[in-house]
Amino acid sequence: MARQSFALQVFVASPSDVSEERELMESVINQLNQTWSKNLGITYELLKWETSVRPTFSTDPQAAINEQIGSDYDVFIGIFWGRLGTSTPRANSGSVEEFQKALARRKATGDTPEIMLYFKDAPISPSKINIQQLEGVLEFKTSLSEMGGLYSVFEDHTGFESSLRAHLSAVAQSFASKQRALSLSTANDLNPVHPTANSITILEEDDYGYIDYLEIYEARQIEMTYAVNRISEATVLIGEQLTQRTAETEASTSGDAKDARRLFKRAADDMNAFADTMKSQLAILSTARETAFNALSNALALQGDFADKDRDLQVLQETLTALIDGTQSAGDGVQGMREATDSLPRVSREINKARRSVVHELDAFLLEVESTRSTVSNIIDSIDRIRQGR
């Protein structure tokens, strides 16, 4: 069965060091357009210089890009990491100039385009660090609050993808709400949801529904909670074991080197068992997190079809806030264990190897905690936007 949908143009601006995120954005939009077109009557058309700009001449390269991209897009997305980009005659970089043009148009129109900025918070290889470029990113990031802007931070591809899905879902629902309001006020008005949106016809396809996505999210959230609890329990246990081994070492009066090595080996075995537990639970946690938040983002895209959505969203926000608190609490406990483990004396080869393994897994968990916190915070922000009808 054919139905009408509306294509909203999304322009992505970024320096060259986030090319992977640009590719991921295109993949996400292609995947989720099926859900949005079917349930909200909205699809996104991605504009980027790689595919939307042809060879030509102008006063300067950035001017040539500006002329071809135009200013009729509906959503502006900026992504930054360690580079601000190459300066232009009018701004500190091409990406900054594109942002400034989008912001000027939003101030002039009052609501268009939607502007979403993302900053990647991940280590940069020392050989690729450009101090001047990095300082430029930090200065630009700091200036946003003075302009009345909010931005999102992500640590890895999973965090970026989940945040992007949630935020674009909120934008799609906002446009869909405007479309419904327009249809009610002007029954014969054939204009699309926004003057720059292009009306197209698509075919509906089978897909998961709202309840399906929520069930996936809830099931994976249970797995996440279980993994975090197992890690917390293992952290308490290894703390007790190391305390016991220390007491045994201090109580030993034989002075025999073999007896000391035996005690050190027991401690190393305890630490290696803990590292193995951490590694296995981290694999479960990471996979469950990615699946859970992707499903939740898809569910948010369908939320507008249900009447009692505000109550549902409020409960969901409370659940996500509790998830952040629980994960952060586990992270605090692990941080203490990480500091204690890293300060262990280098008494034997077995202890040294076990110490490195434990610290490695604890660091991986702390990164997982931060990624979860950042992603959930972004999803909560998108829920706020949905509830406020923005």
Description:
By secondary structure, this protein is of the alpha/beta class. It is globular. The chain has ten helices and six strands.
Brief descriptors of the model:
390 residues; alpha/beta; Rossmann fold; Glutathione S-transferase Yfyf (Class Pi), Chain A, domain 2; 10 helices
| Nearest-integer average pLDDT | 81
User: What is the count of structural domains?
Assistant: 2
Given helix and strand content, the structural type is alpha/beta
**Helical stretch tally:** 10
| Structural shape | globular
Radius of gyration: 26 Å
SSE blueprint:
Blueprint: E1 2-13, H1 19-39, E2 42-47, H2 49-52, H3 61-69, E3 75-80, H4 94-109, E4 114-120, H5 131-143, E5 152-154, H6 157-185, E6 198-203, H7 210-251, H8 257-302, H9 309-342, H10 349-387
Parallel strand pairs: 1-2, 1-3, 3-4, 4-5
Antiparallel strand pairs: 1-6
TL;DR of this structure?
With 390 residues, the protein is α/β, with parallel strands linked by helices. Helices cover 65% and strands 10% of the residues.
